[in-house]
Amino acid sequence: MKLTSSWALCLSIATSLAFVTSGRSQQISGAGATFPAPLYQRWGVEFNKVQPGIQVNYQSVGSGAGVKNFIQGVVDFGASDAAMSDEEIAKVPAGAVMIPATAGEIVFAYNLPGVTGIKLTREVMSGIYLGTVKKWNDPAIVKANPDLKLPDMPIQVAYRSDGSGTTYVFTQHLSKISNDFDDQVGTDKSVTFPVGVGGKGNEGVTALIKQSPGTVGYVEYGYAKDNGLSMASLQNKSGNFVAPDIASARSTLSNVQLPENLRIWPVDPEGANDYPIVSFTWLLLYKKYPDAAKLKAIKEFVNWGLTDGQSFSESLGYIPLPAPVVEKAKAALSTIQ
Amino acid sequence: MSAPEKDIISPSGYRPVPDFFKILCQTASILTVLMLGWIIYEIIESAWPAIQKFGLDFITKSAWVPNRERFGVLPFIIGTLASSLLAILLAFPLGVAIAIFLSENFLSPAIRQTMRFVVEMLAAIPSVVYGLWGIFVIIPIVKAFGDWAVNSLGGFPLFSGPAYGNSLLTASVVLAIMILPTITAISRNALASVPKTLREGAYALGATRWEAIFSVILPTAAPGIVAATILGLGRAMGETMAVAMLIGNSSRLSWSILSPSGTLAGLLANQFGEAQGLQVNSLMYAALILIGITLVVNLLGEAVLRYTQKQTAGIR
Q1: Do A64 and A163 meet the contact criterion of CB atoms below 8 Å apart?
Q2: Residues of B in Cβ contact (< 8 Å) with A212
């Protein structure tokens, strides 16, 4: 009698285990941009606590590779800092929906002992990366910073040597505010600057800045903040100098008018308190999923990310999406089937 | 007429089953050769649009502008060759000196064995660790040296300023450390296998230790030392991660070893993830050139090895 009951117990445990592992667990795999990877991976972990039946696996392979994988159909969702071009979308038989999932801001981080809160005008920003502004006490910098004591030191320029969405957004802004920059360098995920030294990844550029006094470079806000780098206030279109922080970036994002396909860059925002270099990053979803269970899981995950998931953004250095953007993103999410 | 030779394996004189071991070995070796052919074919196929578009200009032009679709890898070819040659220049004397020290009886065998083990352990350190170590240790040293060099030797084009931390010199110093175990281990083996009779002969003729080393032992071991150097050079040219982290990845040509530079392997590692369209084709073309350079170096190495073997055949 006792023996049979323990056998029954074993059997019931075994069946329930089998039920949990094979019957209910839904795997979702995604791949793409490296910039939002820490956030998406955190979402995967936190979402699994809320919905133990759904496992999200995100691989940070880069935006370009993410789009390629998404077109080939080897992932359930993609992710890209550059969204997708119309040509790329046309290659997806099931159709694609781009959902802004979080946002980042790019800062001019610098290493100049004893100098904090430097202000850079639009001319100086492009001038530094064109090699025309060569010294920290250049008259153009001194003029905008009358109260700072600027050293007679050469400006060493650092940039990303690997292809990256960060470089794309950064060069897009500089090309917009400076014709010379547009002519000589232009916009792309990897470009050739006439000056400077390249570091691999945000961490590589951060290391370059930290190690050599006099260096300036562009990195994601989160990296600069975590590493305690000084960040410059940048002049926006309305002429104000805006310091990079969550509030100024959210100001930019809430002034953005999202188009139908949700693909937009606030290249040169007009608001008085808008931080000038801010960008969304997108999740790429198919318009149609043949597997109903997978569709449901993906919808639940992205919906959770757009709402509860936003609370993890700030601590990881991302900009939480403003409410109107979340609403539009949710509306787009509801169209997939 | 003698009876046909009997197979030792089977006493009956014929094989009842095919020789599976032979077939296995043959298949494995053929597959390896096919694999190389396949890799090269795939690379050429993906590179083809870029080869058609740029032709030899790709090798002689200096431009890497993906957004304008202008590609030319001259700075990266020069960077690859310069960083590896500079690394060899630093590692060769050091490596051979260590090899001599470890193969002669300057120290007790126990200490020599330990030192040899430690030097060979350098080869076991992952490349990315060398890169990180280079960032935190070598860069500040090279930067300080560079600032001094620019001030005192700046007139000389190799040391013209401004000095950067991430530079050709930094990458070469770390590469030199990375290839040191290769050079040391193979040179040491070559020195250790110099016949005992030769050494004794040299001493018997009244040679001092240094005379014996320089005029008898080193020349005899020369083919092995040459092979060690070529292997080291090959490793330095293919090294990717540590170099990409340290060299500064610039596509500008410069005479100065204190300026940032770039290598073909580093270019591939940096840009492949986000490349699109013609940029992918161009990166494949660059990969093809890297394979070509490595092949030429290995062939040259083989030729030099044979030549030195012939030259030193008389001594052995």
Answers
A1: yes
A2: 143, 164-165
Q: How far apart are the C-alpha atoms of B76 and B80, rounded to whole Å?
A: 6
The structure tokens listed for B152 are 């005192």
Asked whether the beta carbons of residue A186 and residue B67 sit closer than 8 angstroms, the reply is yes
Structural domain contains residue B47: no
Per-residue pLDDT of chain A (337 residues; tens, 9 = 90+): 444 455 554 445 444 444 444 446 889 999 988 889 889 999 999 999 998 989 999 998 888 888 889 999 999 999 998 888 888 899 998 899 999 999 999 999 999 998 999 999 999 999 999 999 999 999 999 999 999 999 999 999 999 988 888 899 999 999 999 999 999 999 988 888 999 999 888 888 998 999 888 999 999 998 898 889 999 999 999 999 999 999 999 999 988 888 888 988 888 898 889 999 999 999 999 999 999 999 999 999 999 999 999 999 988 889 999 998 999 999 999 999 8
SS3 per residue for B257-298: CCCCCCCHHHHHHHHCCCCCCHHHHHHHHHHHHHHHHHHHHH
* B140 and chain A in contact, CB less than 8 A: yes
- Say whether residue A269 is in contact with chain B using an 8 A CB cutoff: no
Q: Where are the beta strands (DSSP E) in chain A?
A: 26-32, 54-60, 77-80, 96-110, 119-120, 156-160, 197-199, 215-220, 230-231, 233-235, 241-242, 278-286
CA-CA distance, A118 to A247, in Å (whole number)? 19
Looking up residue B148, the CATH number of its domain turns out to be 1.10.3720.10
pTM of the complete model? 0.82
Do the domain assignments include residue B78?
A: yes
ipTM here: 0.77
State whether A196 and B251 contact (CB < 8 Å): no
In a domain, B197, yes or no: yes
**Residues of the domain holding B105:** 73-312
Query: Which of B274, B276, B280, B282 should be substituted to probe chain A, the one whose Cβ sees the most A Cβ atoms within 10 Å?
Result: B274
- The number of residues in chain A equals 337
Q: Do the Cβ atoms of B66 and A189 come within 8 Å? A: yes
Taking the mean position of all CA atoms in its chain, how far away is CA A99?
A: 13
- Those residues whose C-beta lies under 8 Å from the C-beta of residue B49, and which sit 6 or more positions away, are B278, B281
Residue type, B274: E
Q: What is the C-alpha to C-alpha distance for residues A275 and A245, in angstroms, rounded to an integer?
A: 8
Question: Domain total for chain B?
Answer: 1
Is residue B150 one of the residues assigned to a domain?
yes
B164 touches chain A (CB under 8 A): yes
